[in-house]
Design brief:
Elements lengths: L2 E4 L5 E7 L3 E7 L19 E5 L3 E3 L2 E11 L9 H16 L7 H11 L6 H14 L21 E5 L3 E3 L7 E2 H13 L2 H8 L3 H16 L5 H14 L1
Parallel strand pairs: 3-6
Antiparallel strand pairs: 1-2, 2-3, 4-6, 5-6, 7-8, 7-9
Helix pairs in contact: 1-7, 2-3, 3-5, 3-6, 4-5
Length: 237
Amino acid sequence: MLQQHDWSETSLILDLFTRESGRVAVAAKGAKRPYSQLRAVLLPLQRISVSLSRPAKADGGEVQTLRSAEWGGGATLPVGAALFSGYYLNELLLKLLARHDPHPGLFDAYADTLAHLAEGDAALRAFELKLLAELGLLPDLSVVTPTQAPVAPERRYQLSAESGLIPPTSDAHLPGALLIQLQAALLHGSPAALRQACAAAPQALKSTLRGLLHYHLGHQTLRTRALMVDVQNLLET
């Protein structure tokens, strides 16, 4: 479950990320009642198995009705900084994925990332790369975009939202060897290999991917990122 909001005094509208149908809106009738069995199942960042009715017009859009839901097993709810990171992943999916646009590879990457959030920034950077790649927003990292010349491992490059991977400039800070490794991990489809590659330069990737995401989000702001900054500032005072 990515998010929920009130629909009536006793029901909720859920935004679910599913492997087969992508992001879907679901009405959970009676889920807010004290005795509802759904209360213990409909938790964020948890895998659940659901049965849905056919879509029906509600809440201004195509909304399906939740018939049943069961916990699907897996990792427990993350805590601390990992919990904030999980909500950050959810917000990215909510704002960048269209409804009913399935991305099974991204679904698997999301589930894997949730299980490794406690490992730190490398897991987040790996998911951001996978998300951009799945949406067709990430160029081939093994070639220079304007010329299609192979990336030189010993040189540094810049990744631009508008121009792709461009030749070395004064502010280029992504090593060619890293870019080649990232592209290989993306093609191989190994989440562990992608996390390992991201761990080699987490700060350089953080600033680059933040710029790409801001560009493609447009006027939308990431509330979870602002909240994380506020909490960090509060802890440092």
